[in-house]
Please model this.
Amino acid sequence: MEKEKLELKLEESQTVHMRVGSQILEHLSKGIYSNPARAIKELINNAFDANATKVIVRAKPEFDTFEISDNGEGMNYEDFNENFLFISRSNKRDKGNFTPKPLERPVIGRVGIGFVAVSQICNKMTVISSKRNQNFKLEAEIDFSKFRKIEHKKKDFYDLSEIKFSNYREEKNAHYTKVILTGLLNDFKELLEDKDIKKEEGIEIHSFDGLKFEQIIDQIEKKKLDLSKNIGLYWQTVLEIANTVPVRYLDKGPIRVSPKNYNDFEKELRAIDGLKDYIKKLNFSVDFDGIELKKPILVPNEEDIIKKDDDFNIYLFNDIIKFEDGSVLKFKGYIYNQKRSIYPSQLRGIIIRIKSVAIGGIDPDFLSYMYAEKMFLPWTFGEIYVEEGLEDAMNINRSSFTITHPHYRKLRNRLHKFLHKTVFRYCRDRYIDRIEKVKKKEEILRDFKIKDYLNFMFNRNFNVDISEKSSEIPIDIDTDKGSLIVYSNHPVFKKISKKNKITLQNILVLFEASFLKSKGNLEEMKKYFYEGLNKMKSYFLGDLKKYLNEIEKEDE
Amino acid sequence: MNEESLIEVEDEKLYNTVEKWLIRKKWLEYAIKRQEKNKKDFVEFFTLTCSQIYDVRLFDDYNLILSKETSPTQKQYLSVTFCEKDKHRHSLIRDKLAGAKSHLCRFEDLVGAGRVGVSNKVNGWFPFDVLNLDLNEAPFKENSRIMLDVKCAIRKLFIIQKLKNRSFSLFLTTCASEEGDDEKNKEDLHNRIDNNLKRNNEFKDLFFKKYPEGKFDNYHEFLLTAIPKLIIEHGFDEGFDIKCEEKFTYIGGNNITRMVSFIFDCEYRGSINSLVKIKPMRVSNIIERNFWNINEMLNQDKSLLKEIEELKEKYS
Model:
């Protein structure tokens, strides 16, 4: 199959076909690119790779057209020939791992994937682009509607769309790319307009219109918003993109430490500042409908600080692993762990960033955490920046990994071991401590209640002593001291169960009956109580009542 | 974006001239009046703006439009609407006008007078308090269909504004190109003036006083009378009392194109009957009111030139 070629013909249109590899098409048909944030993210990543310092995204307020503009190096017809007329899994930037000077960024992506991804959300895409030092711009109109009618037969490639391509005069210094999506699919438009959510009653949907990014994060934190329920797809998209593309962190993020505790985490915070500086030096900003995006990461939340005062730990997670095939996996990052669940809940999990771009979103399951201590996962957040390796483990949708890839497996195992042996070790100790404290508290409470009950029932005629000695019966009478003894270590007090509860109830009833029958004489009362206990051993609840009736009859 | 595109460079030449800034200063004055008349905290502003959005920035500085600062370098403009048929230009404007409503079409299409249909949602953007129809082309081109569109668009604009009983100010700027405009269309405009010469004695007297030979000195003076006449007729038909407040002419930024510009005050009165007596007076006012030749004004008044240059400098 001979590849079509575009030429430089000014103000004369040419028609060619965009072809796509069957492997990509297979992913498309499975709807892997259906998340709009991921499709838009790919276009933003393209801008990053093109050395853009600013990307402008426009969708609101009408969602009729979706536009992504950047001030990157731009493209010409030759770039289009090379990268966009045939899109396959192997389309990789082969000009080295870094963009040209002065920015020298690590190159993120596979070229063209973003264009394929957006075919899931619109019918038409127009690309207007001009390359620096060339006095023409290209305008390509790409129609995806035809692609939707493709029959899936076994082929190496398919025609994704027809491209109407023209070159026009342009200023020599101009360099930019504009991607304009029109004919947005209704499903996508309705999702952005929150039409589906509005139909459901009882769900309060928050909008952040007119707010600065920092104010949005404040609101999410203060109102403890669940981003998957309380905000519509538009704002979910904005926040997901903010989290995944290489934009700066919030000034006060990602970890907020009060100045008095800074020294405790000095080393860790310096390392995190290093990550922040690295991202800052990439000099990349995204203006999304007038809002400058920043990484929406800020832990702990203000309420936790006020209540618990920096009750958390930070762990650095860095490593270089060499593989037998000569490949290297190099990463650095941090794990933040607090001693209760993190709010907002979207910040529970781990983010893997390859060349500063997040792969997928925040994974709350920590790459399928394998130890039986998942209760600690909601207390934990982390970011891992992969500097070398793992790229080949990425699936074609660039949002997930091939779990059998050796780099992925190694990273996963390292992470799990690190969490289990280092991070959660303290959690476990704390957890056991906490359980013990709770138990003690419960015991004190229960002892107090029994004491209170007995005093109430018997008109405070007895002293009540609490004993930690072991005893066969939970309550006894000390005739010498003239007091009642509560054995707090008796199983009925130690373990709250239905059976124990009934037993305790019965004993108290028996105790009361003995008291009444003895008319307050302790020796008599002890006699009746022991008789009752002996009988009780062979009686169930119904029989106990029978026994009590017998006592009553005897009294009569 | 950092390095300017050809569109931005050309817009800069055309729209960042002292002549344009003088007109913008006048727009500002009348937009403030409209805000007061319509008793609004901010005006709903429709504009056919350029890629540097000078008019929006100027109005925003005077708090005429609703905007919110979302970062030190970015704002959302929440009471601004624009349309633009060219995708690249539309995108350049939209980049700078976050939050504004926009559509990829001509103004004629937006009001439902064009060849491209727009959705009910877009129709719902009307009415506006201030409209700036800053056209940089001959309005009555050879293509009769376009002529029909422009005339029809003006009529449709009044119909839509009438539906919501909204009075408004209209800033209209266009090229005065005798060669660019179609003969049939020019004849139609002439006929409208002739009708007035026959029926409106006051208009006739004023006209012959100004033009003793019974014809206009040049094409732009013809348009400075014919266009307001067209606007007034369409407006009155829908119950609007139209005053042509200001008329300007100037040579455009490329030093070739002659431009004409108008400021109309369109007050909705409701009943056409109440306007019957006013209409001849308003038409006579068109001929009575002198137009401003901006190039001459600026040449003669150096202090004005300095003032406008300072204004221009502020937004450049």
